[in-house]
Structures are given as C-alpha cells and as structure tokens.
UniProtKB/TrEMBL annotation:
<keyword id="KW-0251">Elongation factor</keyword>
<keyword id="KW-0496">Mitochondrion</keyword>
<dbReference type="GO" id="GO:0003746">
    <property type="term" value="F:translation elongation factor activity"/>
</dbReference>
<dbReference type="GO" id="GO:0070125">
    <property type="term" value="P:mitochondrial translational elongation"/>
</dbReference>
<comment type="function">
    <text>Associates with the EF-Tu.GDP complex and induces the exchange of GDP to GTP. It remains bound to the aminoacyl-tRNA.EF-Tu.GTP complex up to the GTP hydrolysis stage on the ribosome.</text>
</comment>
<feature type="domain" description="Translation elongation factor EFTs/EF1B dimerisation">
    <location>
        <begin position="74"/>
        <end position="211"/>
    </location>
</feature>
<dbReference type="Pfam" id="PF00889">
    <property type="entry name" value="EF_TS"/>
</dbReference>
<dbReference type="InterPro" id="IPR014039">
    <property type="entry name" value="Transl_elong_EFTs/EF1B_dimer"/>
</dbReference>
<dbReference type="InterPro" id="IPR001816">
    <property type="entry name" value="Transl_elong_EFTs/EF1B"/>
</dbReference>
<keyword id="KW-0648">Protein biosynthesis</keyword>
<dbReference type="InterPro" id="IPR036402">
    <property type="entry name" value="EF-Ts_dimer_sf"/>
</dbReference>
<dbReference type="GO" id="GO:0005739">
    <property type="term" value="C:mitochondrion"/>
</dbReference>
<comment type="similarity">
    <text>Belongs to the EF-Ts family.</text>
</comment>
<protein>
    <recommendedName>
        <fullName>Elongation factor Ts, mitochondrial</fullName>
    </recommendedName>
</protein>
Length: 214
C-alpha cells in the first residue's frame, strides 16, 4: 500500500508522473529518500537513451555567482532552459544550489577549468554527477537544460574575488582585486559596493588586455 502523503510530496518535489511516483514508492516500500533516488536514476536512463535536442533555443535561465569561503576563487555559471516555467521552478533553483555545493566541494578541480571534468564532479549526498543531475531534471520537465557558461577567476594568494547575483538571477558579476595586505571587513564591504557599481554600469573595459596604454 502506497503512503498517500509521501506520494503527494514525491510528486510535488520531483515533478514525476503519479504512476512513476507510485511505482517508486512500491519498490522502495514507502521509503521516501529511496523512492526519490529511484526516480532520479530512471530519469537519467530515459534522457540518456533518447535523442537530445540539437541546437535547441534556450532563451530562459538563471545566472549564479559565488566565491569560496576564503574569497580566493570566484565562480559564475549560467543554467539555461527552454521556458521560464522551468527556470523559475523550485526544482531548477534547487539544481543551481546543488551545482554550487558540488563545485565548492571540489574547488581544486574547478580551478583546472576542465569543462568535462567539471560536468563529471559528483555530489557527496547521492553520488550523482552534475551532468546526471541536469539530465534527471531535464527528463522530468521534458525540456532541454544546459550548463551553458562557466567563469572561474584565477587563484593567486595576493588576489581576492567577490561575486554578485542580481535578485532576478539574470545578471551576475565576478570581481577580482589585487591586494597588498590582509583585507578587513571594512575593505570587503567597500569591495562589495564596487562590484555592485560595476555590475550596474556599462563598463568600457572588461579585461586588463582591453585597456590601451593611454
């Protein structure tokens, strides 16, 4: 007998069909976490066995920027989807948070900027890779979802990175500053004001290489 409360919860959190949720709960003997894992694994198999949409338009999505706890590395990525219904969903936003956790837990690998290895980084919670997690949600929503851009700041001992994500998740910014001493909380507060200024302005130069000698 399937627990109806768990059935509704599983349906709401995974967006899987009721029949799939019922089957997962039966196979897991009403163990919610196990049922959720079964649905994710099934979704991954489905998306891997089907043809992916080639060159599909992905006009919607969210930008997310963050730094390591010591502010030595800044990371910004863009997760895109086909509709704003998906990009604004709790599951999509949860996937962004999940990707951030995985990247922060593997920051040394992230710094190598090897895109294939980044996609294959695994969660410590359920051992799913970033790509498998994206594929699972893509299968459930029936939409193409892609991690389209990843930006990583260089790590140097005399540099500090800050990150900013606008509240609508359409704009993000990374700012890396060279320092000649340990920064105080007041310094970091000023730097955060600086990144807000840069993200809201039409900058003439984005990189040092863009600047002329004059």
């Amino acid at each position: 007998m399937v627990d109806k409360v768990l059935l509704v919860k599983l349906r709401r959190e995974t967006l899987a069909s009721f029949s799939a949720c019922i089957e997962a709960l039966k196979n897991s003997e009403n163990n919610y976490e196990e049922a959720k894992k079964l649905l994710i694994k099934k979704s991954i198999r489905t998306i891997e066995s089907s043809e992916k949409v080639e060159n599909s338009a992905l006009p919607e999505g969210r930008v997310h920027a963050f730094t390591s706890s010591d502010n030595k590395v800044g990371v910004m990525f863009e997760l895109r989807s086909q509709t704003d219904f998906t990009s604004n969903s709790r599951e999509f936003i949860g996937l962004i948070g999940r990707i951030e956790k995985i990247l922060l837990a593997n920051i040394e690998e992230v710094q190598k900027k090897d895109r294939k290895k980044i996609y294959s980084l695994r969660s410590s919670e359920d051992n799913l890779t970033i790509q498998e997690s994206i594929s699972a949600l893509s299968s459930i929503t029936r939409e193409e979802i892609q991690l389209s851009e990843i930006y990583i700041t260089p790590q140097e001992n005399n540099f500090v990175s800050l990150a900013y994500t606008h509240h609508n998740a359409k704009l993000g910014a990374l700012l890396t500053l060279q320092k000649n001493r340990e920064l105080t909380q007041e310094d970091l507060l000023y730097a955060r004001k600086l990144i807000l200024h840069f993200s809201g302005s039409d900058s003439t130069f984005l990189r040092l290489s863009d600047c002329s000698q004059s």
